[in-house]
Records
---
Amino acid sequence: MLTLNVPNSINMRLDKYLSEKLDQLSRSKIQSLISDGKIMINGEHEKSSYKLSGNESIVVYLDEDEALTNNHVAQEIPLTIIHEDDDILIIDKQAGLVVHPGTGMNDNTLLNGLLYYTSSLSDINGPSRLGIVHRLDKDTSGIMVVAKTNSAHKHIAEQFEKRNILKTYISLTWGVWEINQGSIDRPIKRKRSDPTVFTVDEMGRNAFTNYKVENSWRYISKVQFKPKTGRTHQIRVHSSFMGHPIISDDKYGGGENRVKGFLPEVSKELKSILQIFNRQALHAYSIEFIHPNTKENVKYISPLPNDFADAIDILSEKYG
């Protein structure tokens, strides 16, 4: 038996939620479990199309031969540990590292590295997400919290659900923002034509991001983002929606096509900035929350990585 506690206000179909949470089971297997009455929501049987509203308790009954076991291998992957105690790990995740195994990715993830580093990881979210409380995109670098105990996981997850955790991201975006400080309150939804892409859509889930421009260099701006919600690709989608996609973010209009139309010498300079990044120029700079054990407010910072520092140096030299 496996128990899943649904986050607040999730607004998602039951079968889709289970497919994301139980990625070791096929979609057909999940559908079979639902139709066979082996999945209960708050003690009741529901259909695959049941819409979760948040805070439900889901119980999954599995036979012994169906049990979810941890088949993920421990791998020696370089990890930068900013802080560690009996309850949590604070990781400075490098760009290019996937957080946990999923479809088509069974190893060389942060989880594989964590399994090599420690045997103390929470297991609330199942064997594919041991210790994982929240995620960063593969090509987003920066600060992450990992739970070593189930009690720590619950405490931190509750803060995420109540939106009490303060996260700050630093990014380089295209263009000079007309308003240097403000908020972006636009719902986000997965595109039907391409499920790997999200877009602003009034039928989507609410998403709220505060922003502040820290510096501008004629064609590029350094922007601080503070997301209140935690939707997939939220900052990337919101920044692009404002007409300022993130540098080197091909998926949301920030790639090389953006330099077309500039004078040749300007285009060459801007391409040199793009070439510094082999990923979107987005970095999770800091996180602030209540420690699950000490109950004190803690804040952890991940310094800007080398690609950011190099790009900022070039921009400052060329454009002041």
---
Amino acid sequence: FMDWWLVEKLVSSRTIAFFVIGDAQTGLGHVYRVLTLSDRLTHHELVFFAPPEADLAIQLLQERGHRVRVVPQNQFGEALQEVKPALVINDCLDTSEDFVRSVRVCGARVLHFEDLGPGALLADRTINALYGEDAERGAEASSIVSGTSWCCLRDEFLDPPAPVRKTLQRVLLVFGGSDPSGLTRKVLQVVDASPDGRLEFQLSDS
């Protein structure tokens, strides 16, 4: 029975290619999502690609034991010809049509995360959980789904929730790696203006 199980795993195994970004400006949310997905795709052959500027993503993937092929984004489609994947997962923000067309040449299915660029319409599926339901683009974008129901939760959220404290001691504000809307500052201003708010904040750029 074990032999049959091994044969079934080998027959069903596919090559999946990831293209991911991650640096001081964009943060590490993209690469952590890729790692979460890879932890659940262990019976497939996984190949990781990242552009040269994605230094933090490359470092984190290598620390987790993955080999990373460093290629510029405009050369990714060409690099896929050697790999011949069944699925390509792009977690690199807003893509162009030219980029996606170059990826599709290899014949693989294409999945995007957090993509508001024109290339999102050319992917087989685009998941924009972060942007909310208003990120959908009508009938022409039937392949685009959005909203919290599509959120990819990391393993730490599977643990039982921490008990509710009656006394507020610490506040953790998390608005992604870059916080483009300046939500951190807005929340700090609201808390600072509260009459009974005596909270000490320590800002970090990590």
---
Amino acid sequence: MKRFILILGLLVLITKPSVYADRGSIPFIPHVKIFEPTQRAMIAWNGKEEILLLSTDLRASEPTKILEVIPLPSEPDVKKGDVEIFKKATALINRKLREGIGHTLTKGRSDAINRPPAGEVTFHKKIGAHDISVTHVLEKDGFIEWVEKYLKEAGVENPKIPEGLEQVIEEYLKEEFGWFVFDVVELDESLKTNDAIQYRFKTHFLFYPVKITRTEKGFTSIDLLVLTPGLLSNFPGISIEDVKLRHEPVSITSNELRSLNEEMDDLLGNREDMKLRIWRITGDLSSFENDLIVR
């Protein structure tokens, strides 16, 4: 996987029509439609730093490359992750639930205690990520020109940037979200599973980007494997009522987490009672006014 670090002063990030709930995307062929029926992520957060592991199932209405972009609150370290972690973590949760080891939920969420196991994770033919770059964005003027130039050099005729996304990016910049990750992948009509990419970055809140999709249409469903030292109840972004528990949270040990991801275990301090659960967020893309922010 090729990685570049670009520091761009006085620039802005703008994305285009087909946008996912975790990132924006610009098809190299403008009229091509991009479909993402499944989004999966695993988040480990210790109160100061987060590891975010992402993978998606993708297809296009015809063969094309797409430029994906994800906003982050600080400069990330980016590397290839293990897509199998989603299947392994879900299997661990289901085993814990069958054994009745799950702990009681926080007040107000006890209705989920007797829910069934989290199900299974399935994958399709895997595709690799290409040309990953991390970009520092300081100010909006000039980046539309940069994006259009990039797309023209890639063969896109008359690329257009939707006006509505300018407001979204301005909001990110005002909220001091100055870092964006670019990723180029190649798609066709068959459904494929994108290789997992791991982002590690400093943040004083648990974060998952959603509102970048606000100018788009269509329904989306997002499953998040969330791992923290304890349970969380402060949701200043997306309301806690809109973040649904798939099952009762379970406690896992350092050895169990280490078998999934050693870096996440180290991030959380090798604890013996870490909390693992699956959150689901659903809704129309145009309805997301906030990102998932939890403390």
